[in-house]
């Protein structure tokens, strides 16, 4: 039997220790579900939590459909595996780091809810008094799951699977949890500064976008990128399916962030749909202005950009102004993608131009268009005479962009020091589905013979038969 290396043993050993330790955590009774809790709010946030989870397989389809066919499975699993890795981290320590007792507004005390102790029976979160703390923790978990999954698109087709697992862990603990604390904890320093991020423009999209940029720089260019080869998407219907699931799930992402079944949730639901629609049309029509055909992928990408851009202000801006947010954000990202093609940056699926710049644009536009008439707990933006709020949003963007990029760059460099972060040239040529997972994806073609027999073959096999 081949001797196992430390890198092979470590993941299972760590999970074994966590599972063993969990046995000895004392069990406490659940909340009683009466009195201060609102059944309608609980029902809606349960649904919203499930909707946000649905975005993770949606993202897998969205990314998987755009890469080369030999890397479809490896790309999709990198998004989905985050559901496993981040869930365990969240229960053990990450929820405490994000929402535990604040340590100087920088990070939560890791021992506050260690192994979810007290989450089932604890007092509700101060900003969500009508739902149990455990439901709030699960809703926030879904945001933490999808965020590192977004980064997959930038490093696809060349990163080792084990290296990406390590990235998920370090990103969640060193970037996601601290910034969630800064932005969403009442004692977080950005929260106290007055910055507003309704559903994750900073916490999700900017952090993922900057990590994507850092990852693309550290991993350097794919061979096909260096050789300027045009690789067609593996499966455009996958992209459409993924877009539909993301759009559907985004209603839980944004409207659920109202943390109740209330008028604010309805408003956030409407702004989400409107900005997504405007973004998709804006991207597609801009392509037509540049003498391109109306593109299926273009509409899908534009819709996702519009959805990302409205996320920070979904509960602070009006439905009418969300049209402009989706419209302008898609133009910014479209032009950034075009600019990127003129450089040597190899962000495989344009995560930084779409999510990074989309999140930045959304934060700044919310600083411009936010109004207390939509959400009295928010602020009036520059458009309504309060320029100070715009500059608070700008400060939050600068701080989080800088921190996310520097720490992400350091994480990728550290992983590369521990083990090679990039697959070998031979593995890249063969494809990561085979070399990383011993699995292959095939777009089958049905052939019906004269006798009526039906065979499913891949493209190379079809050529042989013909």
Give a description of the structure.
By secondary structure, the protein is an all-alpha fold. Strand 1 and strand 2 form a beta hairpin. The longest helix has 32 residues.
**Integer average pLDDT:** 92
CATH topology: Ammonium transporter fold
The succession of helices and strands, N to C, reads HHHHEEHHHHHHHHHHHHHEEH
> Any idea what the shape is?
globular
Query: Which CATH class is shown?
Result: Mainly Alpha
Number of domains: 1
Would you report the number of β strands? 4
Strand content: under 5%
Annotated CATH architecture: Orthogonal Bundle
State the gist of this model.
With 466 residues, this protein is mainly α.
Annotation keywords:
single chain; 466 residues; two-stranded antiparallel ribbon; Ammonium transporter fold; 3% strand; two-stranded antiparallel sheet; mainly alpha
Show the helix and strand layout.
Blueprint: H1 6-23, H2 39-64, H3 72-80, H4 82-99, E1 102-103, E2 107-108, H5 133-155, H6 161-184, H7 189-193, H8 201-219, H9 223-226, H10 236-255, H11 263-289, H12 296-310, H13 319-340, H14 351-369, H15 387-418, H16 425-430, H17 432-437, E3 445-448, E4 454-457, H18 459-465
Antiparallel strand pairs: 1-2, 3-4
Helix pairs in contact: 2-3, 2-5, 2-10, 3-5, 4-5, 4-6, 5-6, 5-8, 6-8, 6-15, 8-14, 8-15, 10-11, 10-12, 11-12, 11-13, 12-13, 12-14, 13-14, 14-15
